[in-house]
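retry 2 of 3: previous attempt timed out while embedding magnesium ion. Reduced batch size to 1 and resubmitted. Inputs unchanged:
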Amino acid sequence: MTTPGPHGAAVTRVNGPLVEVTGLRHVAMSDVVELGPRGLPGEAVAVRGDVTTVQAYDYTGGLAPGHPARTRGEPLSAPLGPHLLGGIFDGLLRPLAGAPAWLEPGVTAVSGADREFTFRPAVAAGVEVTGGTTLGTVPTAGGIGYRVLVPPGLSGPVGDIRASGPVPSDGVVATVGGTPVHLTSAWPVREPRPYRERRDSDTPLITGQRVIDLLFPVTKGGATAVPGGFGTGKTVLLQQITKWCDADVIVYVGCGERGNELADMLDELAGLTDPRTGGPLADRTVVIANTSNMPMMAREASIYTAATVAEHFRDMGLDAVVIADSTSRWAEALREFASRSGELPAEEGYPASLSSALAAFYERAGCVTTAEGSHGSVTIIGAVSPAGGDMTEPVTTYTQRFVRCLWSLDRDLAYARHYPAVSWAGSFSRDDDVVAAWYADHDDPGWLERRSRLAMLLAEADRLGSLAELMGVSALPAPERATILAGRLVREGLLQQSALSPLDASCDSARAAALADAVLAVTDRCQQLARGGVPAAAIEETDFGPILRAREEAGSPADVAARERAMLARLDQLSQQADIPAGQDSSAEPDSAPAPDSAAEQDSAA
Ligand SMILES: Nc1ncnc2c1ncn2[C@@H]1O[C@H](COP(=O)(O)OP(=O)(O)O)[C@@H](O)[C@H]1O
Ligand SMILES: [Mg+2]
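retry 2 succeeded.
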């Protein structure tokens, strides 16, 4: 046994983020250990006799053997309060003073949490309350209905409760059973917050991205992974969802990615108006920044910190979304630490705990009934950047086990500038039936049929497209050529969506449905014409501009419908030129068209 020095415990070894401390008494696994004269935070990751191995979250430059160390005697916790909304934090949820500061290497700028908020009490003194009861509300800029809850595990009569008025971030709002409840309360980041019960997810998260909302929907409370090689559009897609999805609160974790990308997003976010409140959209966003230039190990904590923040809002009966870009950079931090600690590496140098660490993150997604009986949710969307696009590497493989949706980004699509490059062949959603039921209850009974028609058309067009590449398109019969054309119309007129388009960067459900129905009506008419004897070349040479440009130019479902009518009228001229009555179908092959013609005729007649 080493005798503790004058300060008790001392640093004995420093190897990057791995620090060994000797002589810590009463230290437990996962306790926060403060290192050196500046008290750099770290976490006990192994305790062997008198020696504690600490994972340091900040740069350890300047830390030396002999420096003092002490344990905080508690696990890493996140301070949860209304100050989170609109804020930018590091992986340990310390406020960052602003973009320039966190772009400087080695700076962990901390701006004061010394803000004041208005508290409005919701209960009177003397009332019996338990964990999760609303003590009061805080009108926040984001207009989300922020509630101050009795912390989990605490119950008893309300003693004093603060009157309506200003309260500092760290102020006491009430006492419950004699224990003070602060406006800001801490919760250990690795421990899921309790709830009354888990519920099945039954509501789609509307992302505003058509390919997702129409084909691969995620539910509020679901989990999705977004694998894609470098430059396939992961960051752009995730940032679009951050800006436009219909959650109440978005927790965005920039994890190990470029700092300037995040700075650009923050700039854009600051300039965007929230359609709900008319105020800045940033007021409903919490940004956790752990960019590539910041200390690597804070990445490790950052995704759990983000989940904790999201659960904090979930417990108020809100829908929160965690967006992590990228979990591969997070896993790099695990690998880095494992290699320094001499841990026996598992696959590709990752620690054997990689799978359980990923599970611990994605399992925090879910829908719950809160203590007060309202519904809240945490949705998790994580980017994965497999090196060289290798989908069999460990992070991608394990992640797929824990998610219900996969939006797989395709290099060829990105190369062809088809954005978002979500592959229809390589993506899935296991929640389509639940989402279909929700749409049926919300004025869109046709959602499921639309989805299957689009999926079938895309698959069939891909198959025929490969055939045409082999044999030449002229070798195919006209209806099959019409299917290839239909695939192109769906891809270009519906699935492509530019993040830069003023009108189309985000698309609401009604407009998405109108665009899909318009494109499908046009593809139906093309099939009819082909089967009615109009030469395939004549159909292919038609100018489809009105329908292809609808996504960029038609702002409402009515505008889209007008485009559809114009396009159908143009196609009908073809049948007149060929002397074939519109809508006539001379083909007897029942399965050559993916859709029933009668439905299309009714659509066009209406
Ligand atoms: N939805 C989109 N609309 C327009 N351009 C896009 C879109 N998605 C990606 N891009 C283009 O692709 C580039 C790379 O995307 P990015 O999200 O940075 O890739 P990744 O994060 O996968 O490396 C962007 O800079 C942008 O030019
Ligand atoms: Mg990126």
